[in-house]
């Protein structure tokens, strides 16, 4: 009886201002974020398709010289896939949350966003460069390097920050609508950067003395941490 009386009071009482605001927030911002999530997932699926096409087109060309140079596409789940070429693998990962840029970020200062702040909310897809052996031998201490982040908003416009060309090619947020040509360009640029980003020999002092335990790790491919710039300061 007590619970029934509570439900009666709630159902028949005028909604408070806070409840009205919560309902408004769910109908606006939460709905907006769901729309952005669906946009981002659609783009991620297209990114997968383009990456798979690139792998299939490149493989016949590169194996003419060396059969071991096959370019491979690996489906890793709904929100991740890998593109492997030679000693490099790029892991493309979609984040399932929606983000707003911080107040001091250039996107927040663009007229396109200041006119309609909802345009500044974006889904995010990341591209990380790993050594292929890091994944093959499950070297859990190895480092993957972020090459690019692709942001997609509710209108299908996109913005990219990343390494080299990817840090300036796609900055016109107000004009850039995501499409196949841009997606292919993003994949190609991440591959080019990974190919030029060499594995350096660590400095002597970084390797130093070795304990017997460390020696056993070296002899076990899964236990010896490796990264392209491990032991060096960031460029």
List keywords for this structure.
235 residues, alpha+beta, disordered C terminus, 6 strands, six-stranded antiparallel beta sheet, 8 helices
Summarize the helices and strands and which ones pair or pack.
Elements: H1 2-12, H2 17-62, E1 71-75, E2 80-85, E3 88-100, H3 106-109, H4 111-114, E4 121-131, H5 132-136, E5 145-152, E6 158-162, H6 180-196, H7 204-207, H8 212-218
Antiparallel strand pairs: 1-2, 2-3, 3-4, 4-5, 5-6
Task: Give an overview of the whole structure.
This protein is of the alpha+beta class and 235 residues long. It has one domain (2-218). The protein is 42% helix and 20% strand. It is built from 8 helices and 6 strands. It has helices at 2-12, 17-62, 106-109, 111-114, 132-136, 180-196, 204-207, 212-218, and strands at residues 71-75, 80-85, 88-100, 121-131, 145-152, 158-162. 23% of the residues are buried. The model is unreliable at 230-235 (pLDDT under 50).
């Amino acid at each position: 009886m007590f619970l029934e009386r509570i439900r009666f009071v709630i159902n028949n009482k005028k909604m408070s201002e806070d409840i009205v605001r919560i309902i408004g927030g769910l109908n606006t911002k939460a709905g907006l974020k769901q729309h952005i999530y669906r946009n981002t997932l659609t783009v991620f699926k297209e990114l997968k398709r383009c990456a798979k096409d690139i792998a299939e087109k490149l493989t016949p060309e590169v194996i003419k010289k060396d059969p071991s140079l096959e370019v491979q596409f690996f489906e890793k789940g709904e929100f991740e896939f890998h593109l492997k070429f030679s000693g490099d693998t790029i892991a493309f990962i979609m984040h399932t949350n929606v983000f707003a840029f911080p107040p001091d970020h250039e996107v927040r200062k663009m007229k396109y966003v200041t006119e309609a702040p909802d345009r500044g909310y974006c889904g995010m897809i990341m591209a990380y460069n790993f050594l292929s052996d890091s994944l093959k031998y499950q070297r859990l201490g190895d480092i993957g390097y972020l090459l690019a982040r692709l942001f997609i908003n509710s209108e299908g416009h996109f913005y990219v920050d990343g390494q080299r060309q990817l840090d300036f090619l796609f900055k016109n947020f107000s004009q850039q609508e995501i499409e196949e040509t841009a997606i292919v360009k993003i994949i190609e640029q991440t591959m080019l950067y990974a190919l030029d980003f060499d594995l350096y020999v660590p400095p002597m002092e970084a390797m130093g003395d070795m304990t017997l335990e460390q020696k056993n790790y070296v002899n076990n491919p899964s236990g010896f941490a490796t990264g392209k710039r491990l032991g060096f300061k960031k460029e």
